[in-house]
Amino acid sequence: MSGYAMQVYENLSKKYPWEKEFLQAAKEVLESLEILMEKEPKYQKHAILERIVEPERTIIFRVPWLDDNGKVQVNVGYRIEFNSAIGPYKGGLRFHPTVNLGILKFLGFEQIFKNSLTSLPMGGGKGGSNFDPKGKSDNEVMKFCQSFMSELFRHIGANTDVPAGDIGVGGREIGFLFGQYRKLKNEFTGVLTGKGLNWGGSLVRPEATGYGNTYFAEEMLKTQKKSFDGMTVAISGSGNVAQYAAQKVMQLGGKVVTFSDSDGTVYDKNGINKEKWDFMMDLKNVKRGRIKEMADKFPGIEFHAGKRPWGLGKIDIALPCATQNELDENDAKALVKNGCICVSEGANMPSTPEAVEVLLANKVLYGPGKASNAGGVATSGLEMSQNSMRYNWTSEEVDAKLHNIMINIHRSAFEAANKYGTPGNYVNGANIAGFKKVADAMIDQGLI
Ligand code: NDP
What we know:
Elements: H1 4-15, H2 20-39, H3 42-45, H4 48-52, E1 57-66, E2 72-83, E3 89-95, H5 101-117, E4 123-129, H6 138-152, E5 161-164, H7 171-185, H8 205-222, E6 232-235, H9 240-251, E7 255-261, E8 264-268, H10 274-285, H11 293-297, E9 301-305, E10 317-319, H12 329-337, E11 342-344, H13 353-361, E12 365-367, H14 369-372, H15 375-389, H16 395-419, H17 426-444
Parallel strand pairs: 3-4, 3-5, 6-7, 6-10, 10-11, 11-12
Antiparallel strand pairs: 1-2, 2-4, 7-8, 8-9
Helix pairs in contact: 1-2, 2-5, 2-17, 5-17, 6-7, 8-9, 8-15, 8-16, 12-13, 15-16, 16-17
The structure holds NADPH dihydro-nicotinamide-adenine-dinucleotide phosphate.
NADPH dihydro-nicotinamide-adenine-dinucleotide phosphate is lined by residues 165-168, 170, 209, 237-241, 261-262, 321-323, 346-348, 373, 376.
């Protein structure tokens, strides 16, 4: 990297040296944009890069709550309203002990370009807390969510900022958050997405990120006249994204051989079938158990404590669906050695920069999260439209729209990569296509 984008990155890294995930995400985007900056000097003239790397607004607040023993607990809450040039801020809430400002800035920054790629009118935002829902009772989760929303409610709204779920925030948490918002504001609006089906949610929203990632991978495979049929597929994570990526892969004829959580990986050389998938859905969503219990239940499934899925046997396609930086250079080398032809990211930034280099150098089809996992937020956008119309589409209608959006995102990224001289590089393609729309809107709207 040299020139304008490089300068902006260097200044950013001096300003926030402790925000390593944010710097990692910013570097990847700025590197991709260098070629565009050379061709279109208007972006430098308007200082778009300096402006786009700073959030429009950052809200940090105290979240006090009482645990089941009557003891006061205090967490930190955040909402980063990163960019609203093309629509209300939109992006999930993450509840996980590792949450800090740098992680949320990385996620919010990525969200700007991802939302732009969906072609829906949504700006970028992200939020969350260092609260850990794991091991908490439903009552404790409710009290935390109510306290969190008691501050957040003044900053969000259906036309201002519309949060959704992410790691640690599923249907249960969205319910408690929505209930508190409704009480405080005395209004029933589409202020959160991922809502329950009987109170404003959209069909196919729970499935959307996992399905969308599989649709994106399918489009990449088609460019080489390949498909999921008969492919061996490794999936990491066992949460919302992993669960529905697995279901769609099975529907398309692929063989899913792994799931994981932060304790380790289950490996099933025979492939997950419907019975095992149903067991996992109950285990993770109802019992809130650990993935190793699959190995206790089904003979033939092995549990590998502390291991990631990427080095376990032959893998044709890898779908990382857990968390950031969960696939490193050695994992990428292991995948290449074992014949992997495609990596499509369900999680945000799961591959380290070194891993991405290995994958690209070995001509592995590589779908970066901001394009490949955009189906979740796209369907959240569809939930917002349905809420505004006070009308619900059928699951077939939502799934067809989701599928179409993923095909279009693939096409935009593929064409931008070609146009700017890096054919097959979906990283550059997605960054350039996502950036242009937001940057042009910022220029149109003046210096604000
Ligand atoms: P969930 O909380 O439902 O599941 C997360 C999964 O990842 C769990 O299996 C969890 O295991 C595992 N995991 C989380 N942190 C770690 C870690 N540090 N090390 C190892 N495993 C970990 O989250 P989602 O499925 O919703 O999100 C997964 C990824 O997808 C995230 O990167 C998220 O940002 C991204 N994403 C999600 C979208 C959505 O619609 N939900 C939309 C777009 C992207 P454990 O239970 O042990 O923590």
